[in-house]
Write a structure and sequence with these properties.
The chain is an alpha/beta fold and 220 residues long. It has nine helices and eight strands. Helix 4 runs parallel beside helix 9.
């Protein structure tokens, strides 16, 4: 089990700027949860003669040449991700039903969007895109495992706290840091969803926003 994750100072500063509230809280990721990412990244990779080698939930060690199947080095993967997000952040497609589900849930819950967005300069583009889709909740940018940020966001609020994210790493971090959190692993891409085995701390594994909203509504 991972060790508890501290909150980064730059993330804590964003959290402290939020209005104080004791309402129950939903902390929701953006990529592959509210906005499609895998399909856009696949297009980006194919244009460069690259591909996902397996439908496994990792990037380093899982992106390689379409011809040779040779994997890219970690630094090269990071470079491609920076270029990809610079190119796509303003035009990602919404996962069907995300806007309706989140806005309905917002009647009873506070909602904060916690995103690991490479390139902080892309935050305004992400906020503009989400706002144009009718998703106007606060956007906080993080880097690395999210456990510390989730614990800081939850501090002083009454339970429950719900965490929605696609990444197994982020879910393990939250489990280690704030195990009382209700954890929903949401993966929009059906291939990656099918290949994912939920770990014991996952309360719901899904790629469907209607199912997600019904599950969360039943908690209160």
């Amino acid at each position: 089990m991972p060790e508890p994750t501290p909150v980064r100072p730059e993330v804590l500063a964003q959290i402290r700027s939020l209005p104080r509230s004791e309402n129950p809280l939903i902390i929701c990721d953006v990529d592959e949860v509210i906005l499609h990412m895998i399909s856009h990244l696949e297009d980006y990779l194919h244009e460069r003669g690259l591909m996902f080698l397996k439908h496994e939930y990792r990037l380093t060690g899982n992106i390689g040449s379409k011809e040779s199947r040779e994997t890219l080095a970690a630094e090269e993967v990071r470079r491609h991700l920076m270029t990809f997000f610079d190119d796509v952040t303003h035009r990602q497609d919404m996962v069907p039903g995300a806007d309706t589900a989140l806005n309905e849930l917002a009647r009873d819950w506070d909602i904060v969007l916690l995103t690991n967005l490479p390139g902080g300069h892309n935050k305004p583009a992400r906020e503009k895109l989400l706002g144009g889709l009718g998703i106007t909740f606060p956007v906080l940018t993080n880097s690395g495992p999210k456990g510390g940020a989730v614990a800081a966001l939850a501090a002083g609020r009454r339970s429950p706290v719900v965490f929605i994210d696609d990444s197994p790493t982020n879910h393990r971090s939250v489990q280690a840091t704030l195990p009382s959190t209700v954890q929903i692993q949401f993966i929009a891409d059906a291939r990656f969803l099918k290949a994912t085995e939920p770990e014991n701390h996952i309360d719901l594994l899904t790629g469907d926003w209607q199912e997600t909203a019904s599950f969360i509504s039943a908690i209160l």
